[in-house]
Amino acid sequence: MRSTTFGVMIIAAVLCLGAPAQADLLDKAKSLLNKDKAKPAASAGQAGTTLDKDTVAAGLKEALAIGSQNAVKAGSQIDGYLRNPAIKIPLPEKVKKVEKPLRKVGLSKQVDEFIVTMNRAAEKSAPQAKDILVGAVKEMTIVDAINILQGGDTAATDYMRSKTYEKLYASFKPTVTQAVMSVGVTKAYANLVEKAKKTKLIRDGSLDLDHHVTSKALDGLFYLLGQEEKKIRKDPVARVTDLLKKVFGK
Question: Are the CB atoms for 142 and 57 separated by under 8 Å?
Fold first, then answer.
C-alpha cells in the first residue's frame, strides 16, 4: 500500500516539475508501476492499488473534460482564432506564396477579408467539437490514463488527437461548409481571385476551402487543448476541483 501510494505521488510530482527533473522522476514512476503490475492480485485486506489507479484515471479524465470545454470555448469566441497568432488560420499555400505581390498591386483589402472570413468560419464551427472530445474522455481506460501520465506535457492531447481526429473531421467539415458560405469565405476568395487574375498572380483559382479551414481549425483546437493540459499539469491555480488538486498536486 505504501509503495503504491508513493508511486501515485511520484506520478503526480512528475506533472508538476520542469523538464530537467522530469526524466529521472519519470523513470521512477515507470519502475513503480511495473512493480505494481508484477505483484499478485491484492486480497480483500490489501485493497488500495486499484483504488489509487482509479483515482488517478478519474483525475486525468476530469482534467481533460475541463480542458476540452475550455479549449472549445476559447476557439468559439469572436476573434478566438483571428486574434490568436498561435491558431490563426493562414492563407492557403497557393495564395500565401503570392501574398506580398497581391498586396503590392493594391489587393490588401481583399486578402485581409479572405483571412477574416476563414477565421470567422472556424470560430463559428468550433462548438461542434465539444461532444466528441468529451465522449473520447469517457471512453479512456485506466491503462490509457497511466500511460498518459507518464508521457510529456501534451501526452493527453496527443492521445485525444489520435482517438478523435478522423471523427472530428467528418463531423466538423459539414459545419465548416455551412459557415464558409454564411460568413462569405467563398465570396471573399472569389473576389480576390477575380482581381488577382487580372494581374496574372493567380492563374488557377481552384481550392478546397472547406478542407483548408477544417484542418486548420482542428489544429487550432488541439493546440488550445494542449495549452489547457500544460496549465493543469503545472499551474496549481488551474486545478479547479478537489479531485484535480488531489491527483495533480505535489
Answer: yes
Q: Which three cell numbers stand for residue 3?
A: 509503495
Which residue in 138, 173, 153, 172 sits closest to 223, CA to CA?
153
Residue 191 · residue 112 · CB < 8 Å: no
Task: Outline where the chain has alpha helix (H).
Answer: 2-14, 19-38, 49-76, 93-96, 99-104, 108-125, 130-139, 142-149, 155-182, 185-199, 209-234, 242-248
Please count the structural domains in the chain: 1
Q: Which domain does 53 fall in, by range?
A: 2-38+47-248
Q: Give me the phi and psi of 210, to 5 degrees please.
A: -60, -45
Packing angle between helix 2-14 and helix 19-38, nearest 10 degrees? 150
Classify residue 201 by its DSSP letter: S
**Among candidate residues 129, 127, 220, the one with its CA nearest the CA of residue 137:** 129
The model's pTM is 0.73
| 10-residue stretch averages of pLDDT, the chain, 250 residues long | 41 40 40 49 39 75 88 96 97 91 92 94 93 91 85 90 94 91 90 85 82 96 93 68 64
CA distance 193 to 202: 7
Residue position matching grid coordinates 510530482: 13
